[in-house]
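User: quick one, sequence for these tokens?
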């Protein structure tokens, strides 16, 4: 039986500050698939992630996005999250005065029915898998966290929320090998525990994709998907960088 689509993007154009960034994106992600989105700085990778989640900075010029059989563009950002769309930020925000544990409980309750006892059991298991003790969530959101800790905190949200589709915006940037492996293991465990879990991993670098093997690899250049292929594209980029792509597409 053919898998159902979780995300379908057709002919997507988007701009920011009167500058066109996305120039006709077409991607289909089926339930249970992992897609990698690679490309140089300025190619439009992160913009696509922000457009999906409804960031007000970006203006949709043309195209359609269907998520879980719904018109994503008709949903507000919080409604998109409730539908099961998750974005792990490249630069997570610090929020003073908001306890991280309380925040996690609030966002989980917005998605599904859960009592405090069951929530804390789930949280304890997730922290154990991430090699973090309970004090990690008894702080204000990301306040005083190292860059690596902020990324681990994003993964903790993913593990607790159990989204249908996770968009990982350069979660691997700034991580040492141990932290990178920890993040990758968490993504792989989500996939193992839920065969319909899907992800779009946005990254510059091949290392993350050695741990989380994508089903498809898309390479962006100048606001479009220039090449789509399998893991061999990751190996090509690791060996040659993106020079071949510039020569091919100008």
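Assistant:
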């Amino acid at each position: 039986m053919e898998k159902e689509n979780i995300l379908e993007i057709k002919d997507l154009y988007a701009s920011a500050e009167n500058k066109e960034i996305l120039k006709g994106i077409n991607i289909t992600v089926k339930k249970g698939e992992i897609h990698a989105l690679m490309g140089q700085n300025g190619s439009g990778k992160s913009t696509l992630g922000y457009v999906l989640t409804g960031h007000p900075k970006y203006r949709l010029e043309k195209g359609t996005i269907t998520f879980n059989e719904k018109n994503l563009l008709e949903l507000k950002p919080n409604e998109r999250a409730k539908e099961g769309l998750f974005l792990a930020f490249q630069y997570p925000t610090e929020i003073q005065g908001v306890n991280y544990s309380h925040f996690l409980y609030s966002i989980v309750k917005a998605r599904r029915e859960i009592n405090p006892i069951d929530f804390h059991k789930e949280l304890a298991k997730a922290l154990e898998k991430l090699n973090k003790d309970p004090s990690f969530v008894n702080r204000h959101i990301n306040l005083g966290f190292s860059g690596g800790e902020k990324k681990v905190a994003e993964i903790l949200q993913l593990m607790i929320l159990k989204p249908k589709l996770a968009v990982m915006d350069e979660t691997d940037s700034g991580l040492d090998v141990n932290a990178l492996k920890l993040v990758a293991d968490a993504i792989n465990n989500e996939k193992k525990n839920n065969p319909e879990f899907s992800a779009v991993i946005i990254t510059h670098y091949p290392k993350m994709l050695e741990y989380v093997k994508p089903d498809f690899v898309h390479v962006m250049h100048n606001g479009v998907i220039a090449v789509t292929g399998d893991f061999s594209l990751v190996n090509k980029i690791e060996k040659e960088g993106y020079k071949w792509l510039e020569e091919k597409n100008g």
